[in-house]
Amino acid sequence: MKVYDDKHIKNIVFVGAHNSGKTTLAETMLFEAGLINRRGSVENGNTVSDYHEIEHQRGTSVFATPLHTEWRNYKINIIDTPGLDDFIGEILSSIRVADTIVTVINARHGVEIGTEIIWSHIDNYNKPTLFVVNQIDHMNADFEHSFNSIKALVGNNAVKIQYPLKVDGAQCIIDVLKMKMYKFSPQGGKPEKFPIPDDQKELADHLHNELVEKAAENDEELMELFFEKGTLSEDEMRQGIKAGMLNHELFPVFCVSALNDMGSGRLMGFIDNVAPAAADLKPEQSVEDKTIVRTNEAPTVLFVFKTVHLPNVGQITFFKVKSGVIKANDKLVNSRTGETETLNQLFIMDGKKRESVSKLVVGDIGATLKLKYTETNDTLHAENNKVTIKPIAYPEPRTKKSISAVNKNEDEKLSDALKKIHSQDPTVVVSYSKELKQQILGCQGELHLATISWTLENIYGIKAAFIQPKIAYRETIKRTSTANYRHKKQSGGAGQFAQVHMKIEPWYEGMAEPEGFNIRGKEEVELAWGGKLIFYNCIVGGVIDLRYLPSIKKGILEVMESGPLTGSYIRDVRVMVYDGKMHSVDSNDIAFKIAGAHAFKAAFLNAKPKLLEPIRELTVKVPEEMIGNVMTDLQSRRSVILGIDSSDHYQILKCATPEAELYGYSTDLRSLTQGKATFNSVFSSFEAVPDSIQQNLVQQKE
After folding, report:
1. Contact, 652 vs 644, CB < 8 A?
2. How far is CA 473 from the centre of its chain?
3. Backbone angles phi, psi at 573, to 5 degrees
4. pTM (two decimals)
5. Which of 97, 147, 88, 145 is nearest to 118 (CA)?
6. Where would you tag: which of 195, 332, 345, 567 has the fewest CB atoms within 10 A of its CB?
7. d(CA 323, CA 327)
8. Taking the CB of residue 632, how many other CB atoms lie within 10 A of it?
């Protein structure tokens, strides 16, 4: 393969709502460039990018797939992404390494919720973005509606480069940058070029002048030229458009029919000649605050943005060359682990097809096989030049399930498979809760979960069971209580004896010291599960030897790890040990630990014990017209509305919701709003459970 320099490598990512035609457009671009001699289709399951079996079964993209094409002395790396936000991890990793975002819009629907969700991430990254209105030849296509919805999304800096037109029944595209009309046969392909028809001249001139002004706004020299001449040449317009895209202040809009191969060649020409390359982007700062120098001469730095595990192939690691040049058999150091990796082979990937190359230069995207210590988000760098690329920030899980192998003999096999799935998709989060005694799987929604289940069963041969996770409740007390316990055991020879008297109270920050006790010592124990145990030594007269106090505290802490109400952790209690008895022969650490545990448990049950539940701060973004149904549903989930904000035609609800009420919320919200609402949640606090619910939970434990 020809080696291109960084100015002639364009990295683009196709994003957009489900069914907008991203995969079809990628297939058409590969066909137009001659890299494939026959176009596949999503329906037939034979496109280059959707090559996984699950994608064939579902008829939709599940994974982001790197491809490439070559067009008129430029190399265009394309990443085709899923359109459903359950697979947001695939989308985010692709946006992170792209130089230009190509947002595909279905001409029948305009900007949809999927596009709006993705746009918020594009906006955060400030990446150059263009829009492609697809399916312009569909009988229900509405280009003007689509363009207006783009303007509603990004503002008045959306600007038409093209608009569609029917002439004598033939599909045409008017291009106001080149000021030409492209006319397509019903079979698509290479169009005929014509002057702009007389009846379109006024509109085309108006749009051309608007484009000239937008291009001039982004460059002082161009603005001066514009004032001098009243217009700009095509090359000058290209320069201004690129500057506007780099500033994230100009969003060109194109139109195509990917299915019928209309307009894709012109789109590729624009990507070649105008869309920014890696060399054009602003310098990047590393975690160590070093400037990443984007030249071939600089030390090599690779950023790993994707990992795939394929049967019979193993791990494929996808990377972008951020600096320098990488050659086959080069050794690089992983900045996270410190381990040295040898990149024995380098590939350009087109779906599942691998093409070996001897080297890749700065700005290019490639892959390698069987790295031992490297995962998604890692940086590989030349020795003695430690650099860490800022990692991709992935969203928190929105759906959680307890997961276990149906066949208990496969638990270890399940654990290994889940590690690989997390390595491939970091939005899949797996943890073991010692408290709940469950393995918890976190993901982005029910469709995401179904994909994980399919992968476990069909790729790794493991049948997994998914159930509702337990809730991590806490136990505490509401009033003061006293108790004493005598532990006495005789079994021949030395026995066991200990007696402990204690008083317990609810603890809160800033609480005054206890009155009526001779305080000889105080210890604050920060509990691993949150809250505190405040432990006072109030022993007078040596009735209990000081050496037994740690054992009493140990017994208390053991009870606190499994509370008497539901077996949940206990928090925020203070204990005063003020009396007791010991025996010169039979007293020992074990005896005092047992006595301390029993005394604490008896006092706890008499102190009006209270169950606390985790509360999450829930943020829901919902279209204005659907707010009523969403609020009614939230109130049924014991939510407390904290505030409502507006953003365009959306309402943003903030509320405090018990975690126990959020199970299945992702599915229910999607059903309530036809998938148009989104949400996220973060842990907020522990609050008291209503008495009726507490009673049910305690009965379940019994």
Report:
1. yes
2. 27
3. -135, 145
4. 0.86
5. 88
6. 195
7. 13
8. 10
